[in-house]
Write a structure and sequence with these properties.
Elements (H helix, E strand, L loop, with lengths): L1 H5 L12 H8 L3 E6 L2 E8 L3 E9 L6 H14 L3 E11 L12 E3 L8 E6 L4 H6 L3 H12 L3 E5 L5 H19 L6 H14 L2 E8 L2 E11 L2 E9 L8 H15 L4 E6 L9 H5 L1 H8 L4 E12 L2 H14 L5
Helix pairs in contact: 5-8, 6-7
Amino acid sequence: MHLLKSVKIKIMRSLLQTKEWALFKKKFGWGFKEVKGVFVLKRRLPFQKEILYSPEVWLEPQTASEVVKALVDYARSEKNAIFYTLEILNPHDECPLNPREYGFEPSFEDYQPRWRQIIPLTPSKEEIFAQMKPLGRRNIRIAEKKGVITRIHDDLMFLEEDTKIFYELMQETAKRHHFAPRKMDYFRELLRLLYENKYGFLVTASFNDKPLASLIISVYDRVASFLYGASTEIEKERMANYAAQYAAILEAKKRGAKVYDLLAISPPGWPKAPLAIKYAGITRFKENFGGYKEAISGAFDLILKPNLYKIYRYLEILRRGQVS
């Protein structure tokens, strides 16, 4: 862990704060506006209302106040907006300003995960492997011994094939874990975005030409992120998920990424919190690859229409099954 902390880097920019991402979201009903270099996404609601959202914004200390003031002014100018969510990517203990001083309050939900498992990629391949937990190293070796083969795709010629393979595994994963997956078209367009702009790749782990696990990975501004994963229970003992993640880590390093962000994990120190319970299994899996835990500053809401905000918040919490 000492080695890893010594090579910890700052996350400076996010794929979610690019015009390419905004155009991708536009295909699924979102509008957008760029304000002081920050993309504000706009989602229409019934009765001509809307919500505003800026995902994963990195605030530079010297310009943070100016940028946030401009974002607040813009949000207040949008007369149909119920609220504006500003998601700050800076580490929680290094945020250059206090959002409350600009009228924000902590959001009732995080769109992007606050707590993440981060693996530095600047050490050698051997050092990255050595710092993993024994179970992680063991399962990677098992996958290799049991004949699991991984492949990396990032070419549009494979787009339809890759989408089909990933989505079939995603449907099985969703059924197993009782959630509704996004539509196939969403994953097709996401892969198109990554492939066209060389912003990422798809990893598929197979045995005897049968796909067992598949991951969608982005690589942007030195940061690789594990966006989506899907797998089958068939041949589970071959540890294809471990093979796929290890292949993704090595490919990300090869492409110049300095960190590999495994994204959502349980918040440390809160074992009975709803998120801790929800992410308990996936957290144990991710921790087996080593690295360290990091929390971003997270999401803050600028409430523009208090009564409608309360209704929206309640309906969202109800929809997610957090109230009875």
